[in-house]
Specification:
By secondary structure, the protein is an alpha+beta fold. The protein is 29% helix and 22% strand. It contains 16 helices and 17 strands. A hairpin with a 5-residue loop joins strand 2 and strand 3. The longest helix is centred in the C-terminal third of the chain and has 18 residues.
Length: 523
């Protein structure tokens, strides 16, 4: 686990060397991040934080603009030529950072790579079947059936240079969870507004402006200096002293102090991300023995033991929004009728455990990270304490994302934290196909608990080919109701989102998907 002492050492060592040693440039942004990215390979793990950072280097065929509306990027136009085939016209004159020309062959190589059976990100293209190059600047994408959300999916599918992949034996995806690394883990070559200058994992990743970017820049930045500073107190001190000038995860406990600072602007809103708990639903617990969490009464007891109002008030400082369902209100498919939070009732929780045959509780592994979500370590400790009060015996395991992700993804956790913002799709179908669906090909990639609900699968599969929006959303809502009734996942809250930035910046838009897009920033 990273400690505050270690973070201070980073601050006074590599951070000062990277930031002060280079001299302060008017167009430099010094980004003090709560954690490092997991890889330079955007297909290596479905981590929104990493993928967002890499959006500054790599681009998709389409993208979300400043208003989170889909617009052309590496594709200039598209049409549906049959119910299962979309044709994309590609942008001409685009070059990768190494000077290679962008063509349809690069799109095909990228689609093959991300949809490979070993790709951790294959679930981000759930309806993809294959692609065919028509000419250098035209490509057809064939789907498994009629599918209304392809453009949403493609906003997060980064395009690689085929020649670069072949030259560096990087045609196959890497996998953070499985410890599979490759050339793309430590090197990058995109078409985006910034290009990689250097990377030292856990220390600094430096980007410089791409002077040959095809788009008309709205920013005036020439350099991005990304520095993971895991200690919240150290991040705040660095921001106030000017050693960093942007923090994308301002601690809720320090917001009043930051608001009072003359050299800092604070940007606040509620994140689209719903933070929740997942349950092991296999036959046995991680440590062995029958799994009590396959009994609905046990899951109900675990939910009733948790006082979300108390967590909201004490741990999240009143900044979070308690969640009764698995998606935020602005996500299509959300229903206010489902968004009711189960009241805390420790006595009823004890009674349910006794009724299920566990009057003395049971031991289980509770896996959290210490930097993925706002105040995660604190709310995990609070939940573990609440469970202990009803007789449960959680073994709380807290550590960095890089250490905890393989445990969660590989079935080595009985209860685990996970957050889902439905990115890049911005639709309930995202969580249904990726997390709630049974594991099957591109579906259920984040079904880390191993559950299977045939009715959720049916509704998800039907919604995935339903072109009538209202009918599709009704199916999605019905699936969310089953998930709520069965407590497939236990929703906690939409976390607070607070960015803090130096007052030297003229324009620094904050986006509700919690993704900094520095190509809109001016200083």
């Amino acid at each position: 686990m990273n400690t505050g002492i270690g973070s201070r050492a980073i601050l006074t060592g590599s951070l000062l060397a990277a930031f002060v040693g280079t001299g302060v440039m008017a167009e430099t942004i010094k980004w003090g991040a709560p954690r490092d990215i997991v890889s330079l390979d955007p297909y290596s793990y479905g981590d929104s934080y990493t993928i967002n950072f890499l959006n500054h280097i790599y681009e998709g065929l389409v993208r979300y603009n400043r208003d989170l509306t889909i617009e052309p990027a590496l594709a200039t136009s598209w049409e549906i030529v049959s119910p299962t085939v979309w044709r994309f016209k590609l942008r001409e004159g685009v070059t990768f950072h190494n000077g290679n020309a962008f063509t349809a062959d690069d799109v095909l190589a990228s689609l093959l790579r991300v949809s490979d059976e070993t790709s951790p990100l294959k679930g981000n293209l759930p309806a993809y079947k294959n692609a065919t190059v028509i000419d250098d600047y035209t490509i057809d994408i064939e789907l498994t059936g009629a599918y209304p959300l392809l453009l949403n999916d493609l906003t997060n599918i980064h395009i690689f240079d085929k020649e670069w992949l072949v030259e560096n034996n990087a045609e196959k995806p890497t996998d953070v969870s499985a410890g599979v690394e490759g050339y793309a883990t430590f090197n990058a070559n995109g078409t985006g507004p910034f290009k990689l200058e250097s990377r030292t994992p856990e220390a600094a990743t430096i980007l410089t402006v791409n002077e040959d970017w095809w788009d008309e820049p709205q920013h005036n930045l020439t350099r991005v200096e990304f520095q993971p500073v895991t200690s919240a107190a150290t991040r705040v001190a660095a921001l106030l002293s000017g050693e960093v000038d942007f923090v994308d995860s301002a601690p809720v406990q320090d917001l009043e102090r930051l608001l009072a600072a003359e050299n800092v602007n604070v940007l606040e809103r509620t994140d689209l991300r719903t933070v929740m708990l997942g349950f092991n639903r296999r036959e046995t617990l991680v440590a062995g023995g029958p799994n009590p969490m396959n009994d609905l009464r046990v899951r109900q007891a675990m939910q009733m033991a948790v006082d979300m109002d108390l967590i909201h008030e004490k741990v999240m400082r009143g900044k979070s929004r308690n969640a009764g369902t698995l998606v935020a209100p602005s996500i299509p498919g959300y229903s206010a009728d489902l968004d009711t939070v189960t009241p805390a009732d420790p006595e009823k929780a004890k009674a349910l455990l006794a009724e299920a045959g566990y009057p003395d509780g049971f031991e289980f592994d509770f896996v959290c990270t210490n930097e993925s979500y706002v105040n995660e370590e604190q709310f995990c400790q609070a939940i573990a304490s609440m469970w202990s009060r009803v007789g449960l015996k959680p073994r709380l395991d807290i550590g960095p994302t890089a250490k905890q992700t393989p445990k969660r993804a590989n079935g080595q956790a009985d209860v685990y934290t996970i957050g889902w913002a439905t990115l890049p799709m911005l639709d309930t179908y995202s969580i249904l196909i990726q997390m709630l669906h049974s594991q099957d090909g591109n579906a259920g990639v984040f079904n880390w608990g191993g559950w299977s609900y045939p009715e959720i699968d049916r509704l998800t599969d039907e919604a995935g080919v339903e072109l009538d929006r209202e009918k599709r959303l009704a199916m999605e809502t019905e699936a969310l109701k089953i998930a709520k009734d069965e407590i497939v996942m236990m929703p906690l809250h939409q976390q607070p989102m607070a960015w803090a930035v130096s007052s030297e910046f003229d324009d620094f838009p904050q986006f509700p998907d919690n993704k900094p897009r520095l190509w809109y920033v001016t200083k």
